[in-house]
Amino acid sequence: YGYATTTDFQNKEGTFGALGEYLVYNFNRDPTLSKDSARDSTYSYRNASSTGDMTTSDVVAGQVGDGLDFDGTNDTISTIRDIAVIDTADTLSGCIWNKPDTQTTDDVLFEKDNGSGGGFSFFRDDTGAITGRTDMFNIRMEDQPTAAQASIEAATDSGTSGVMRHVCFAYKEADDTGLRLYINGVEDANSPTSTSAITSIDAGTTAFVIGSSAAFDGILDDVRLWFRFLDAMDVLTIYNNTKSSTVFWTFGSETTQGSPGMTQFHYRFRNDDGSETGATNFLAEDTAISGLF
C-alpha cells in the first residue's frame, strides 16, 4: 500500500488451494438473485445459485453473520458448474453450521452424490440404517464403481432440533481410520471408521448441492470444503474461530485460548515443500488488538 512498484507476494492459490479452503459459502446475499446468490469467498470462485422457493426473508441471523433458512421442501443451493475435482479427491474435508427446525426426517447438509454408487453425503439422520441410532449426524462415502460404503452414524440425539451446531468430516481414501466425524470441535465417540473399501468417490457430473433432494429444514451457514484430511486440532480451531470469532484468532494449529481479557495467538510458517517451522505462541490484551481488525 502506498508503494506501487513493490513486488506482489500474494499467494491466493496457496491460501485457498490444495492446503487451504477450497470453497467457503457464508450466505450473505439475496437468494432470489438469478445467479451467484451464494458467493464462494475463496480463490476457487465456485459460486452457486438457489433453487426452490427461497425469498429475501430467508436471509436470517446465522452463526457467522447471516445464514439461510431452508424450508425443508425444495430449497437448495447448487453450484453453477460441476466441481469435478471432488470426484478425483483422495482426501476431502467439510464443515458447516446448522440448526434443524425438525427432527423427524433425513435432512441433507451438503453432498455430491449420484444416487447410484459414487460420491458422498453429509446429513442429519432421523434413524441410522446400520445402528438404529436416532436424531444424529451421518457422513457417508460411496465407492465408484463397487457402491461399497463407509459411514459414521453419530451418537443418538447429537442432531436434535432447535440447536445450532458445527459439524465436520474428514475423509482419506483406502485407510483404516480414513473417515472421521466431529461435532462442536470434538470427535464423535463412534469415529473413526475404515475407508479401506473406498478407492473413488466419483459422482460424475452430479452437482455439489447444499440442502439437496432430502431438503434441509432450518438454518445453514458457513459451508467450507478442503481437499485435505483435517486433523482434530484443525477442526477445533475452525470451531473456535466461528463459534466466537470476536474473542479468538489463530494462525496455524490451535493451542489453548488465553484467560478472559487476553487472546492467545499461535502461528507457524509454511515452507514451499509444505513443511512447517517456527511455531510460536504469544498473548495480547483484547483491548490492544481490537484496533487491528
Give a structural overview.
The structure is a single chain. The protein is globular. Strands 1, 3, 4, 6, 11, 12, 13 and 15 form an eight-stranded antiparallel beta sheet that branches. The chain contains three helices and 17 strands. 7% of the residues lie in helices and 37% in strands. The two termini are 17 Å apart. A hairpin with a 5-residue loop joins β7 and β8 (119-127). With 293 residues, it is mainly beta. Residues 12-19, 249-264 and 282-293 have low confidence and may be disordered.
Largest sheet: 8 strands, antiparallel
Strand content: 35-45%
What is the overall silhouette?
A: globular
Order of helices and strands: HEEEEEEEEEEEEEEEHEEH
Mean pLDDT across the residues is 83
Number of strands: 17
Q: How big is the Rg?
A: 19 Å
Structural class: mainly beta
Helix content: under 10%
Low-confidence stretches: 12-19, 249-264, 282-293
* CA-CA gap between termini: 17 Å
User: What count of helical segments does DSSP give?
Assistant: 3
List keywords for this structure.
293 residues; mainly beta; 8-stranded antiparallel beta sheet; 7-stranded antiparallel beta sheet; 3 helices; 37% strand; disordered C terminus
Short description:
It contains 3 helices and 17 strands. It is mainly beta.
Give the helices and strands, then pairings.
Layout: H1 12-15, E1 21-25, E2 48-51, E3 59-61, E4 66-71, E5 76-79, E6 91-100, E7 107-113, E8 119-127, E9 134-142, E10 149-153, E11 165-172, E12 179-183, E13 186-187, E14 209-210, E15 217-226, H2 232-243, E16 262-270, E17 276-285, H3 286-289
